[in-house]
Amino acid sequence: QDIVDQARRDLPENVFKELYEAEAGDDEGNPFGLKAIESCVAPLSLAPPLVFGWDLAKSVDYVSGVALDTDGVVCRSVEDHRWQGPWDTTKQRIRAATGGTYAVVDSTGVGDPVLADLQKGAGNFEGYKFTGPSKQQLMEGLTAAIQQREIRFPDGVLRHELEAFEYEYTKTGVRYSAPEGMHDDTVCALALAVYGWRQRSGIGVAPIGISQTSYWRQ
User: Fold this and answer.
1) CA-to-CA distance for 152 and 75, rounded, in angstroms?
2) Which of 89, 93, 116, 134 could form a disulfide with 210 if both were Cys (CB 3.0 to 4.6 A apart)?
3) Helices marked H in the chain — which ranges?
């Protein structure tokens, strides 16, 4: 019973029902729900951004940025904020796109020195380190935002990555990732943006286990 109770606390509701209550899901391992994703598709907002989320990568994956306005609607082209390139170019493009907007940046591994450079002379960049627990909580926050239709996004690469996204239950929790050979950079950028959007809107609490580096509140 202790194991079941712990799983109920740790796992998303749909995952718990599949694993412990034999209630089959109809989304083939997608944590967000395909119908929920479809219900969030909307035209690109023309409003100014409240927050950016930036997922970093250098070669195999893509650097991706997602911007949300005050209503939680994506307000900058996802395709135009997704690229591969050297770090110097990446930092220049992130600065140019973000301006003075509050931004949550993946500071895992090589992302840490990139974040430090972005923060020089700019107090609007906040770091978020991905660990097993922190990514699980970040994705659970994104799942809730999609299923409750708190956010909206245009059709395109972001929707396709959301629909392909998967979860796998392991001994240490739930592992979220793209299928082998595919990318999840825009999903991670959206999750970071949602986290930042909740912070700026005053409706979120920092997930347990994240490591932050921020000068925004100083």
Assistant:
1) 10
2) 134
3) 2-10, 13-20, 34-39, 87-98, 111-119, 132-147, 157-164, 185-201
Burial class (CB within 10 angstroms; exposed 0-12, middle 13-18, buried 19+) of 60: exposed
Q: Which residues have a Cβ under 8 Å from the Cβ of 7 and sit 6 or more positions away?
A: 16, 19, 20
Predicted confidence (pLDDT) per residue in 10-35, tens digit = 665 666 666 677 665 555 578 899 99
pLDDT tens digit sequence for 91-115: 999 999 999 999 999 999 888 999 9
β-bridge pairing 82-83 and 63-68: antiparallel
Q: Where do we find the tokens 């079941």? A: 4
Those residues whose C-beta lies under 8 Å from the C-beta of residue 146, and which sit 6 or more positions away, are 32, 33, 36, 37, 40, 162
Question: Is the Cβ–Cβ distance between 18 and 169 less than 8 Å?
Answer: no
